[in-house]
Design goal:
This protein is 85% helix and 0% strand. It has 2 helices and no strands. It is rod-shaped.
């Protein structure tokens, strides 16, 4: 029990950091997709890097968010 409590104390800040990184990734992905839509319809020149970068970010924040969810049991 003491070992599990020690692991929990160590992993709690890591879990919180992963949750914050997931939230920041979601915000950054939303900004990139908004920039892509703006570029496509207003500037008539869609940036080529936004879609792959948004997919990569989405993969990471889903991975980190699901790890936090498994740890919290939700």
């Amino acid at each position: 029990r003491q070992t599990a409590a020690a692991f929990s104390r160590v992993l709690a800040p890591i879990s919180r950091l992963a949750l914050w990184l997931s939230g920041i990734g979601l915000l950054v992905m939303t900004a990139m997709v908004a920039w892509q839509v703006f570029g496509r319809y207003v500037l008539n020149a869609s940036p080529s890097w936004t879609e792959p970068a948004a997919l990569l970010l989405m993969s990471w924040f889903i991975l980190l968010g699901s790890a936090v969810g498994v740890r919290d049991g939700t």
